[in-house]
Amino acid sequence: MNRRMLYAIILALTVCGCRKTIPVPVAPDNYPITSFSAVFESYWNGMNERYVFWDWDSTNWDSIYRQYKPLFSRLDSEAKSYSISWIPGEDTVLLYLEAMTANLIDGHYAIQSLDIRNGADTSFRPSYLRKSNDSFFVANPQIFTPYFRNVLPSDHLNQAHVSDSAFYQGDTVFAVSGTIGGHILYLYFKSFHLQRFYNVDDSLNATLKFFFDRFTADSAQTYDGIIFDVRDNYGGEIQDFDFILGSIVQDQVPYGYVRTKNGNGRLDYSPWTTVVINPAKGAKPLAPSQKIVVLADDWSQSAAEQFTMAVKRLPNSKFIGTTTWGATGPFFGSDDLTDLFSGPFNIGVMGTSEATTKPYGIVKTSSCMFKYINDSIYEGRGFPPDIMVRASDSAALFSGVDSALQTAINFLKQ
Amino acid sequence: MRMPRVISMLGSLALAMYGLSAQAQWQIGLEGGPDINALKTNISNVAMTNYISVVSYNFGIPVQYKICNFLSVEADPSFVRKNYKLQWEGSLSDLYQTNKNGYIQLPLQGNLLFTNHRFELSLQGGAFAAYWRFGKVKGRLPDPTGTYSYDSAYVFRSSRDQRWDFGWLAGARLAYDAGKAGQWFIEGHYCFSLIDQQKNYEIGLIPQYNQTWIFSAGALFKLPHL
Q1: 3-state secondary structure string, A69-123?
Q2: How many CA atoms are closer than 13 Å to the CA of A160, on its beta-carbon side?
Q3: With contact defined as beta carbons under 8 Å apart, do A174 and A204 qualify?
Q4: Do B46 and A266 touch (CB under 8 A)?
């Protein structure tokens, strides 16, 4: 009997042990920033856990760890050897962060509000730095708003309606509607917050009603074609797709797939789910003779790119302009959902009291991956047009020459 | 002096084995019942999230070889569901994902037997190997327009998923000998995985281990001497 008990005890003891220790992960926002090494650990781990594109991205994040961890440690050593604070190395931190992120494909990706105290630029966006190298890239998008608000309505539209500007979560919201030559219906909008302001903002309401009252199945007698202009549109709320297009689709129109992260591991993903345009009640398709053109350009981003792809799924549609920005991965409905496994995060926390704490920097990154309905991936490279038309320079635009718009008009006349 | 002692010991062992083999017998049976699995990992960096245990089922075909009246060895090829659930709390409590994983498992164990009339208590210990045969995921997660629901097959990724699993097990079985009607039993096992469900594909990867309580009821039937 004693021997049997001994066997039992030996068996029980062997059941324990022999596993790797499970570490306790720290949220990137919670790293106390007391050294350059802490900046690195917070940033690297935050990216490791919350960046959604590791499945597609060519950046080897483990190599980045092995290469840059010693460099950040060296900054700490150098700061100590000067017997002063760790501030002098911050210029170098910025250079390191730019180099670490240079090839990330996330078109939304930006590091903002870096706590650099020597007056250097404290924000950067890798996709902007890459696009700036393209000689055709319009680097000063400020020209577009006065063009769309003032020049385009007077030079190209009949019955022009231009709304006032509203603002939502940092986005400017305005729209322009009208007709061209009496047979083309035209709508420009600066961002996708139209439904949010519809029936709220009187001037936007009037502009949109002019368009939507005519954007109907029985408009074929009057309008040969429709132009959606999302040039210089930075995106917004995807719910607007149903609001804008729902009246002309009778069934759901799938245009892509999204997925998000469901764990800390780089490859922890939810299944892909289909995203669709949903029909509105009583929706009727346009007449087969009617064509749709979507105008988009380098500065068309995020929801504007997905909208361009969604319109391309409709019959008789054409995309004219230049390849879009390449920031197709959407954000969640709210940016403050940090209790999830992907999306924006803060780099550590500085300060000791609740009143003075602030992050070392803010990382803006997509919450979801997006791919087109044919499985093509346009993140980081942009959605290409059917008809490539380079943007007219500002002198031409302001003297009434809009090459992309003219190409759209010519196409709709055919 | 040494040589005769070794011969003497070997002789004693041979006699003992002969005695054991005279009692040895094979039994085969069927068993099945509920199991409860937990994923052991740490996601405390994402507030409001927890992995919680999920009850599922298992069934198997135990094959036992009784060495002597107090010891038997057993293999139990079986199918075991090792499910778990990721659940958010508070304002995000509608978000979740349930992983339903099916494993083909082969436990090999020794049973220490304590017999009293027709009742037999076994203390069991051993090891198991398992292969992650398939998975399903069902859940609701956020998307740009709110949330989306899904219920689909889990798509394995060779770069991420470690489909082989090994570990220790321990348990107990209470059996009743019903004579020609077989030996009917209930039992409980605890399976303790030693293998991370993920391949070591990134620096600082947080391991994920299955821990499974397996409960079953079944019967063993004696086979003719082989």
Answers
A1: HHHHHHHHHHHHHCCCCCHHHHHHHHHHHHHHHCCCCCCCCEEECCCCCCCCCCC
A2: 14
A3: yes
A4: no
Provide the token pair at A295. 């105008």
ipTM exceeding 0.95?
no
Written as six digits, the tokens of A20 are 């790797």
Smallest CA–CA distance from B207 into chain A, residue: A22
Q: What does pTM read for this prediction?
A: 0.89
Looking at the partner chain, which of A238, A264, A270 has a beta carbon nearest the beta carbon of B150?
A: A270
- Nearest CA among A155, A159, A139 for reference residue A147: A155
- Which residues lie closer than 8 Å to A381 by C-beta, 6 or more apart? A105, A323, A326
What DSSP character marks residue A323? -
Confidence category of residue A369, pLDDT binned at 50, 70, 90: very high
Q: What pLDDT does residue A153 have?
A: 96
DSSP A135-187: TT----GGGHHHIIIIIHHHHH-EEEEEPPPEEETTEEE-EEEEEETTTEEEE
Interface of A with B in 261-320 (CB under 8 A): 262-268, 270-271, 273, 275
**Closest to A297 (Cα-Cα) out of A185, A184, A204, A397:** A397
| Amino acid at the residue A154 | S
Of A14-28, A128-142, A327-341, B103-117, highest mean pLDDT: B103-117
DSSP annotation of A358 reads: B
Check if the beta carbon of residue A297 is closer than 8 Å to that of residue A139.
Answer: no
Alpha carbon of B1: minimum distance to chain A alpha carbons (Å): 30
Closest Cβ opposite residue B206 in set A8, A23, A271: A23
How far A18 CA lies from chain B's nearest CA (Å)?
7
- Say if the Cβ atoms of A4 and B88 lie within 8 Å: no
Q: Residue B70 and residue B111: Cα distance in Å, rounded? A: 8
pLDDT > 90: percent of chain A: 65
Higher pLDDT, A188 or B25: A188
- Residues 6+ positions from A258 with CB-CB distance below 8 Å: A272, A273, A275, A330, A368, A369, A370, B143, B144, B148
User: Are A7 and B143 a contacting pair at CB < 8 A?
Assistant: no
Contacts of B88 in chain A (CB under 8 A): 339
pLDDT of res. A150: 94
Nearest CA in chain A to B41: A22
